[in-house]
Amino acid sequence: MVQNALAFLAVQREFRSFDSHVRGFLGSRPRRRPRRDPGTVPARTPESDRWSRDLKRRGFSFVGSTIIYADMQAVGLVNDHLRGCYRRGQIEARATGRGPAGPVGGPRRSRACPQGPRPSGRRSPADP
Fold first, then answer.
1. Could you tell me the pTM of the whole model?
2. 3-state SS class at 31
3. Given 10, 48, 82, 103, which residue has the most CB atoms within 10 angstroms?
């Protein structure tokens, strides 16, 4: 933990913000990758591979490509929700500044998007 915190501060000093470092790899607009089938959602991408290698070179640990891609999804840098998923439009609206992310809770999980909220409708801290 301390090692990553020190590496984070070094990146901030070099780039003036961690966000500037991230945007150097991914640009300023979120990646839209519409998927039709859950089996086509990748666990990693060339961008996450490059960013992971850079973070490791800078002294970060626990930053493998799969973890980095999951982080990219979690913070909205990549939107690869399935076509027809209610979350897809909500994330795009938030990313483009066209509106809020949508109602808390939203509809239950469906075949259209297994990435939706928990089946019970209750939200956990891990739910987007």
1. 0.68
2. strand
3. 48
The two three-digit tokens of residue 62, written as one number = 């626990």
CA 87, 80, 44, 3 dihedral sign is negative
Query: Domains plus CATH for the chain?
Result: 2-80 (1.10.340.30)
Given a contact cutoff of 8 angstroms between Cβ atoms, the answer to whether 54 and 68 are in contact is no
End-to-end CA distance of the chain: 24
The more confident residue out of 107 and 91 is: 91
Pairing of strands 31-32, 78-79: parallel
Sole residue written with tokens 């984070």 = 8
Residue 120 token pair: 């019970």
Task: Find the mean pLDDT for residues 58-83.
Answer: 89
Angle formed by the axes of helices 2-15 and 18-26, nearest 10°: 80
Residue in the block written with tokens 């591979």: 49
pLDDT at 73 over 70: yes
